[in-house]
Amino acid sequence: MKNIAILGSTGSVGKNTLSVIRRFPDRFRVIGLSANADIKTLDGQIKEFHPLFVCLKDKGAAFKLERNLSPKVRVFSDDEGLIELIKDKRIGQFMFAISGSAAFEPLLSAIDSGKDIALANKEALVMAGPLIMRISNRARVKIIPVDSEQSAIWQCLEGQDRGRLKTIYLTASGGPFYHESGRVLKSVSVPRVLKHPRWKMGKKISVDSATLMNKGLELLETMFLFDVSRNKVKVLIHPEALVHSMVEFVDGAVLAQISVTDMRIPIQYALSYPERLNNSLPGIDFYKLRALNFEKPDILRFPCLGLAYQAAEELGTLPVVMNAANEVAVEEFLKERLKFIEIAEIVAKVMRRHKNSLNPTLNDIRSANNWARQEAYSLTRRLN
What we know:
Residues 143-226 form the 1-deoxy-D-xylulose 5-phosphate reductoisomerase C-terminal domain. Pfam families: DXP_redisom_C, DXP_reductoisom, DXPR_C. NADPH binds at residues 10-13, 121, 123, 202. It catalyses: 2-C-methyl-D-erythritol 4-phosphate + NADP(+) = 1-deoxy-D-xylulose 5-phosphate + NADPH + H(+). It is a single chain. The chain is an alpha/beta fold. The protein folds into 3 domains: 2-145, NAD(P)-binding Rossmann-like Domain (Rossmann fold), CATH 3.40.50.720; 147-262 and 281-298, no CATH class; 316-384, Rna Polymerase Sigma Factor, Chain: A. Helix content is 47%, strand content 15%. The protein contains 16 helices and 11 strands. It has helices at residues 12-23, 39-49, 59-67, 78-86, 104-113, 123-138, 148-157, 182-185, 190-194, 203-211, 213-226, 264-272, 303-314, 318-334, 342-353, 362-383, and strands at 2-7, 28-35, 53-56, 74-77, 93-96, 116-119, 143-145, 165-172, 233-237, 243-249, 254-258. The strands form 2 sheets. The protein has a 7-stranded parallel beta sheet with strand order 4-3-2-1-5-6-7, sandwiched between helices. Helix 5 packs parallel to helix 6 (123-138), helix 7 (148-157) runs parallel beside helix 11 and helix 14 packs parallel to helix 16. It starts with a strand and ends with a helix.
């Protein structure tokens, strides 16, 4: 029985993780849950899974929740409470499903706890990937990727000589607007951006999927997770979204991880690794599969991916600046204070203004993150 703490349990990945655990009550036990402010969903999860402790970032919501819970359930609140929850020695593994840069400090604390981490957050690695990987290696903490693309690469590289790796092919569906004209992109609305043709995701990742910034973040995540240079990672648009990524070796052999598009598959493997457990999901019907298409991404129409290429080349504090500016720009777009095409413009301007610091410390990364957010907010206000 493995004790799991799910950080970000009310989001898409968190809910899918609970769906996996529900099928294996003899293998996994939910010991801790955390959420931002969705008290209704969290309350339902508590009643079903009976964790020993929970955390809500919103103090008011945490107070309301605590009044209705058994005194056996310990309730934490805000960022400090989450760090305290993470320290509990009964946790066997973390599922890190907190979105955005908010996962950065908790991730550092989770690594310090010495427990293995199933990681579904990419922003923290984009911010400080080299440092995080060094710290986790020193602590002998396994970081197991949960995003389907990173999980695919990890599985394809398992047991292989990484010195013989030639290329990683990182696949992308292309998002909802990949084949739309630039004219259409100038006027797309928030509801249309949030309506992904294949998946129902959180708002931030839905916008990032539409701008292709999500694939840019994954490019950097791939480099840091697998310790490869930028020139060894190629992005491919793959509309069918069945090949979750591929790796090519120096002898010309290419290994691909192919499965139906369902997050429960990589989540289940991250929890059960190195064992593979049965699931009841339908597989791919290869008799009905007529074609698998791949094409080169168009960074002229989707400049966010080009900005990520730039950050991947220069490294230092530029990735954290890019990520911070993007988070602010997406937030302002969702509030209808920016146009869709202005997201990339804000990110590019902040990156141009930044004085890059190579080999940054954690404090350098924190400072760059705060500076970039302020710059992005300032630029947005000027546009309005």
